[in-house]
Amino acid sequence: MSEVIIPEELNSSDVLENKENVIETESPVVNYAEKTLAELVEIFQSLGEGIERVKKSKEVEAIKSAFYKKLSKEKAEAGFEAPVEEPSADTVEEESQAPQAEDEKVNPFEAIEAGFKSLYNAFKKERAEYNRQQDAEKEENLAKKLAVIEDLKALLESQEDVNATFPAFRDIQARWRAVGPVPAQNYRDVNDQYQYCVEKFYDMVKINRDLRDLDFKKNLEAKEAFCQAAEKLAENENVVEAFRELQKLHEQWKEFGPVAKEYRDQIWDRFKAATSVINKKYQAFFEEQKGKQADNLAAKERLCEQVEAIAEKEVASSNEWNALAKEIEDIQKQWKGIGFASKKENQKIYDRFRAACDKFFEKKRVFYSQYKDSMAENLDKKMAIIEQAEALKNSTEWKKTTDLLIGLQKQWKEIGAVPRKKSEQLWKRFRTACDEFFAERDKQAKPENDFYSNLKAKKAVIEEINAYVSADPEADAAAQKAFNEKWQSIGFVPFKEKDTIYAAFKEAMQAKFGGRSQRSGGRSARAPRSEKDILIQKYNTLQQDIATYENNIGFFSMSKNSEALIKQMQERIDASKQELKELEEKIRKVEEAAE
Fold it and tell me: Within 13 Å, how many C-alpha atoms sit on residue 268's CB side?
């Protein structure tokens, strides 16, 4: 007895019919954005030629994209503003060399750009030829498979003896398996035709039981081997590789006919179970990858926000720029330690991060460019002051020239920084000119400008202060005022003695009169008797100190440390003025409370 054989059907939901549907993971090895133009060309050349290079198309396109971004940026920085156009990946460009006008600006990028275009055009030709050959082979395979189907149809219509028909059927199956891939758009249709004819063959042809059992046995052995291979793949820790190999097993499974009826469900369930294990691992793997990629994206977004905030800051000093640049470098190190985001988001977030970094460093570059311009301007200003001082150093108009030089000293301290290599040299030159004048002035002192006599007179005032015996508060206030007026009426002392003599005067006045107000008469000359009097006394003393500071700030000796001394004196003035404002507010509140 013979029976109709119906082959089992594959569940299309468990099998990917086209291996082009397999997801490929992103595994970049080289960050091409950090490479130079020459390094990118060298990497391109190292990819080889022919099919070896064609199979690295993604890498080639990544190199091309990085090359033209880098080329465009460097051209713009070098002043060649014409946009760089990347060669199309679909067309092969003809190489041409336009003649260059004699007055045209020489473009140093033309040679390397032309060389890269030549390499890329060669690659495109190789790829086009490779694709053409592949398409031609697939069309040939399609024709062969259609021919096999026609032979199978003819076999179905044959009335020959089964002993002759079955070997012919086996031959057709072998021919079918030997044919390579066909165009993707024809795969399902041609395969369905073949399977339909195979099923009809088993339905229509009554084969010998022994031959049928032998065929079932061979199919069962083959499918058991497929099950074992799938089960082994389920143990593979490389989930992506296991999934790819599984697709190949499913394709081979389709090539074999049915097994005995009692084994059909069993063998298929076994194969499907192994498939399910791999599919679940594959799905879990990519769900985990998505989670990690989402975390990586969030981490990179936070770093972008940090850099963007830094890039928006208004920075006015070199030290602050350097500190912020160090922060950016630390953030860049953190970025490198974070894995990839999803393929869709990875390039976008990198471009955002790169743009923020570029914005910061461009602002820093502009700052230092302007800073250098400012130092050059300050250098010119100080040179002008030096020239004026040198023109005055031999003057014998002592009073007039003294005032002029003091004015130049004030201007000097108000001018900003100059290049460090020039600073000390300029300072010594300016100081020398001033010192020469003041030294000669002190030597040539005349009666109307007798500095040493003035020094002697001021020493006498200090002796009088030290000898003064305190009486009552009103008398002390009058004496204090008289001593101040007498001191102010005496002219200049030798330049090098002015600080010492003034310090001695201030010390003597402080020892005798402390912080008493200089106003004479009335209750103000007596010791403070109320909170308001105390505050007013402090206020008057501060005003006196500020006047003294401002009067002396321009008379510092032209020494190596004068800038630091002037800065210190200015800080005292600023602090005293701030204290004055606070005292005014306190006095106002005391008066309001008294009302």
Answer: 18
Long-range contacts of 242-245 (CB under 8 A, 24+ apart): 242/278, 242/281, 242/282, 243/22, 243/278, 243/279, 243/282, 244/19, 244/22
Alpha carbon distances (Å) from 130 to 124, 133, 185: 10, 5, 19
Outline where DSSP puts E strands in 234-363. Answer: none
Report the chain's terminal Cα–Cα distance, integer Å.
131
Q: Is 74 exposed, middle or buried (0-12, 13-18, 19+ CB in 10 A)?
A: middle
Q: CA-to-CA distance for 560 and 424, rounded, in angstroms? A: 9
Do residues 311 and 363 make contact, with C-beta atoms less than 8 angstroms apart?
yes
pTM given for the model: 0.33
Could you tell me the two tokens for 511?
Answer: 């020892």
User: Which 8-state DSSP code applies to residue 100?
Assistant: P
Is the backbone of residue 260 left (phi > 0), alpha (psi -120 to 50) or beta? beta
The three state secondary structure string of 130-143 is HHHHHHHHHHHHHH
Sign of CA dihedral 90, 95, 100, 105: positive
Q: How many Å apart are CA 451 and CA 323, to the nearest integer?
A: 51
Q: Which residues of 441-461 are buried (b: 16+ CB within 10 A; e: fewer)?
A: bbeebeeebebeebbebbeeb
Backbone region of residue 302 per phi and psi (left: phi > 0; alpha: psi in -120 to 50; beta: other values): alpha
The Cα–Cα gap between 490 and 457 comes to: 7
230, 232, 253, 279, 417 from 225: Cα distances, Å: 9, 11, 10, 19, 84
For tokens 């009169």, what's the residue? 513
Q: What does the CA dihedral 464, 489, 535, 594 come to, rounded to 10 degrees?
A: 110
Q: What is the CB neighbour count within 10 angstroms for residue 425? A: 11
Contacts of 342 (CB under 8 A, 6+ apart): 290, 293, 294, 297
| Chunked mean pLDDT (size 10), the chain, 595 residues | 36 36 45 81 76 77 85 81 57 47 62 83 81 85 90 79 74 89 89 86 63 80 87 82 86 82 87 88 80 85 88 79 87 86 83 88 78 78 87 84 86 78 83 84 63 82 84 79 83 77 87 60 45 73 68 47 63 83 80 68
CB neighbours of residue 228 within 10 Å: 13
Amino acid identity, residue 487?
Answer: W
Contact 403, 446 (CB under 8 A): no
Q: What distance in Å separates the CA atoms of residue 310 and residue 305, rounded to the nearest whole number?
A: 9
By CB atoms closer than 10 A (0-12, 13-18, 19+), residue 257 is: buried
